[in-house]
Amino acid sequence: MVQLSVLDLIPVRRGQSNGQALASSFALAQVADRSNCIRYWVAEHHNTASVASTNPPVLIAMLASRTDQIRVGSGGVMLPNHAPLVVAEQFALLEAAFPGRIDLGIGRAPGTDPVTSWALRGGRPDETLREFPSWVNQVIALLGDNGLGVDIDGRRFEIKASPQPVSAPPVWLLGSSGYSAALAGELGLPYVFAHHFSGQGADEALRIYRQSFQGEGRPKAFVSVNVVVAKDAGTARRLSLPYQHAMAQLRLGRPIELMTVEQAERAPQPLPAEAWQAITEPWLIGEPHQVAESIFELTDRFDVDEVMIHPVAGAFDADPMDRYPAREFAVRELAARLVEYLV
């Protein structure tokens, strides 16, 4: 069985307000919920006008309240930006409100530029490389039954995240390198490889994760991938253009603006042909059956039973501003195709 999940950065296209972008993601989450997807995760990105996903805990509360059964989580909370106790309390509160439906995915990258990262840390120096494993362990302990023991001025104090939920949300470690894979294995945590970043490195990272795994039971992992799905391959290729332009702008260090399909078709190609084509090489683009088959190939290649799709289809000029019809189509049709393969 292959399970399908969804990653959302809450894209904001040209002319769209943040409120309209949020409404489109709420609608997408409801499609994923009705389609029996396993998870719906939101990312943490800052200081980017084309991305509205800045605060995962707030978004998770809004998404969970608008859905019925799907697990809602962070893909992920960028832990260097936050105190471990703050993260633990936020997710303890979410778990108390939506028991059994919350995932806490943790990442190591800042999710933003150096200046914004500095501001998020309150001007403190970046100690991520040295402290990150300790921060992860603190979050886990604070969410656990025993809490965290802290020595201050020669005295021992115990602290727990409050409120105390009946259950604790599972903690996942996210990454795109051998470092995160090895740490997830050593801590016995489930692991997600960000295959949607570049399409490279997943084989080695998953090998490292499984070889270093020290937890109870079997290691648990899945991968994420960019997808664009339409009724025919030609339309799918057109729908990929806005995100292709956005990724090119990112690589060139320019402000990222998400265009519509028609705007992207009129815009000049910003990169040489080879670099332009390389952007979409790891993406799964095509009609539903074609992309579903590619998802099965991914699960076989990486020996996973879950794939988290990141729908990167753009919008046409005529599409409503509070919806992303092509992203909804991708989730609904892929979920249906995967079920068909199991029958």
Structure description:
This protein is 45% helix and 17% strand. The chain has helices at 18-34, 56-65, 84-97, 114-120, 128-143, 178-187, 195-198, 202-212, 233-251, 261-266, 273-280, 288-302, 325-342; strands at residues 3-8, 39-42, 71-74, 77-78, 102-107, 148-152, 155-159, 171-175, 191-193, 221-229, 284-286, 306-311. The strands form two sheets. It has an eight-stranded parallel beta barrel, surrounded by eight helices. It is globular. The model has no long low-confidence stretch (mean pLDDT 93).
Offer a concise description of the structure.
This protein is of the alpha/beta class and 343 residues long. It has 13 helices and twelve strands.
Helix content: 40-55%
Tell me the strand order in the biggest sheet.
Answer: 1-2-3-5-8-9-10-12
Strand content: 15-25%
Helix count, DSSP H or I runs of 4 or more residues = 13
- The parts where pLDDT drops under 50 for at least 5 residues are none
Output the radius of gyration: 20 Å
Average per-residue pLDDT, rounded, comes to 93
Keywords:
343 residues; 8-stranded parallel barrel; alpha/beta; globular; two-stranded antiparallel sheet; 13 helices; single chain
List the helices and strands and how they pair.
Layout: E1 3-8, H1 18-34, E2 39-42, H2 56-65, E3 71-74, E4 77-78, H3 84-97, E5 102-107, H4 114-120, H5 128-143, E6 148-152, E7 155-159, E8 171-175, H6 178-187, E9 191-193, H7 195-198, H8 202-212, E10 221-229, H9 233-251, H10 261-266, H11 273-280, E11 284-286, H12 288-302, E12 306-311, H13 325-342
